[in-house]
Amino acid sequence: MISDKLRDQTTRFTKEIQGLLNCTIADHVQIKAVALQVGDDRLFMLGHLLDKRTLTAHRFRLRPRAAKVELWMDVSFQLRLDAEREHLMVHKSFFGVFPSQDAKHGLFHYDYERDKADGYPDAHLQVDATSELFSTLNDPRCDTGRSLAQLHFPVGGKRFRPCLEDIIEFLVVERLVLARDGHEKVIEAGREGFRKNQLMAAMRRDRATVEAFVARYGIGSQA
């Protein structure tokens, strides 16, 4: 069985993501969670109207500022407990923006895959764009025809990667989508929570740095 701790933390996270999207740039998003057993590990997959049979999340509509344009967003997570079986951990995530419900190419997408095995950065950005300069930089012996869209730009690694709030803010401030009144407070509150969680995770994994900080500044320092 999926542990109660994993299920409870996933339920809270599901509500947070659904609330974030519906209070900022989307309408009627329904984040669903499906439990999986992968080898000896247990995890949950999350996404809008996630299909239990195909484990595929549906994209949802955004409201672009430009008239007569469609814009869809794809958001999915894969969650499990950390090594100590205490804290919820994102194993994979995907945030992408596309012109239709089933388009293969879009504007951009952020990917995160913990301990990615193919040599690319765990957290990276890919932009569906072209560059004349980049085309001249390809090594003709191995990279002929490679496009800018195939580059994986590193974005902070597992600890300091962008969060969903950052992507939402980008879409709003670059005047690509319409947002709800008060979206700024929702974004900032969610981002502050994400950053605190990441900081706590970093501290748990680097006790020596925490001890060095306390030794230098003391408990309760505001530095």
Give the low-pLDDT segments. none
Share in helix: 25-40%
Largest sheet: 8 strands, antiparallel
Number of beta-strand segments: 8
Class based on secondary structure composition and strand pairing: alpha+beta
Summed over residues and divided by their number, the pLDDT gives a mean of 93
The rough form would be described as: globular
Rg measurement, Å: 19 Å
- Beginning-to-end CA distance, first to last residue: 44 Å
Structure description:
It is globular and about 50 Å long. It has one domain. Strand 4 (72-81) and strand 5 form a beta hairpin. Helix 4 (164-173) runs antiparallel to helix 5. It is built from 6 helices and 8 strands; from the N terminus they run αβββββββαβαααα. It has helices at residues 4-22, 132-137, 157-160, 164-173, 183-205, 207-217; strands at residues 31-38, 41-48, 60-61, 72-81, 88-98, 108-113, 123-127, 153-154. With 223 residues, the protein is α+β, with helices and mostly antiparallel strands.
